[in-house]
């Protein structure tokens, strides 16, 4: 049970870090900086 | 319970996520259609307002006829709004689709409606945690969908990307079946009309204090979200810093919402809310007091991201605790209305005071003051269940 919980947290953290890495790609960084904030 | 939580979490992941990347369409749509940025921004402002105004009504319908039906209608509105947004060739049509229709769709597919079902189907001792899970899912949707939508636009073109998102919004329909409640689940306990429940809440001081706090939440979050890039640009920081800040806000928001929901099981929620608002003020004060560098921006983005939507689970869990879960969606939608009014003022005042004074200083200080105000007004909130006359006396 504990192992499953640790695996779930590790998986979730990995997914979050992968999404975070996607933000750091230069082409997305430029697009976001100039446009995204308009939608808040 | 697992089914409700899983389906509810997936629904808010989609509904909160899809809308979060709409800003990415600004450039392709305005260039293709020959519109000004104001046309686009006006439609999104209408979307936020209609989301807030329709929230209590969507909640009423969900409480009265079942969240399942409202979610399906909301999903159809979402898909239809996205398709119409892609096809709109005039500013008015764009405002009607991207603004009004999508605003209505969001009111029927986001937190208030889903929280009503979670509230009724999760035991009180796990309710705040479950709301934290759903809020974290919504935060994750916001975080995830921005790069996904950017990829869709780049790969398929802006119009096809909207059609594809419309198909994705329809995924809410099968998920809504997981939130279908048997009539018996809604008919237990104290019986009260919707109007009477709303009057009761609006005359109950603690509900008004929660509304005041949520107003501040909307003001701060949207002011920072919309005006932060300009603030960073004014101080000579590169667009990369703004984007990394956005990613950090998204990342820490997921943790913040989950942790605040979990904490709500262990301590009074009013103290969690009060701490969140106080910490926001401290974070903003520190941010504007120290020299602005990429490092200071990243630290601020991480802290404020952690506090970003972390108000959502405790606010809704307190409402369930005080008023019960029969009209949870309507009451959650009503509190959210004040959030959206705060959001509107945060955007508008940010621009207005910048134009009047030539800097964001005044608005930062207003944000600090409002944060302290919200920290204080949450303290006297009475979390105990409201005392009602016995059924025989009604």
Task: List strands and helices in order, with pairings.
The complex is a heterodimer of chains A (40) and B (394).
Chain A: H1 2-23, H2 26-35
Chain B: H1 2-20, H2 26-33, H3 37-65, H4 67-87, H5 91-109, H6 111-121, H7 124-156, H8 158-169, H9 172-176, H10 183-186, H11 194-202, H12 205-234, H13 239-263, H14 269-289, H15 294-306, H16 312-323, H17 328-357, H18 361-378
Helix pairs in contact in B: 1-6, 1-7, 2-3, 3-4, 3-5, 3-17, 4-5, 4-8, 6-7, 6-17, 7-8, 7-13, 7-16, 12-13, 12-17, 12-18, 13-15, 13-16, 14-15, 14-16, 14-18
Attribute tags:
heterodimer; A: 40 residues; mainly alpha; rod-shaped; B: mainly alpha; Growth Hormone, Chain: A; 2 domains; 18 helices
Overview of the molecule:
The complex is a heterodimer of chains A (40) and B (394). Chain A has helices spanning 2-23, 26-35. Chain A has 40 residues and is mainly alpha-helical. In chain A, 80% of the residues lie in helices and 0% in strands. Chain A has one domain (2-39). The longest helix of chain A has 22 residues, at 2-23. Chain B has 18 helices and no strands. In chain B, helix 14 (269-289) packs antiparallel against helix 15. Chain B starts with a helix and ends in a 16-residue tail after the last helix. The mean pLDDT of chain B is 90. Chain B has helices at residues 2-20, 26-33, 37-65, 67-87, 91-109, 111-121, 124-156, 158-169, 172-176, 183-186, 194-202, 205-234, 239-263, 269-289, 294-306, 312-323, 328-357, 361-378. Chain B folds into two domains: 1-180, MFS general substrate transporter like domains (Growth Hormone, Chain: A), CATH 1.20.1250; 194-383, Growth Hormone, Chain: A, CATH 1.20.1250. Chain B is globular, with a radius of gyration of 20 Å. Chain B is mostly helical. The chains are: A mainly alpha (40), B mainly alpha (394). At the A-B interface, helix 1 and helix 2 of A face helix 3, helix 7, helix 12 and helix 13 of B.
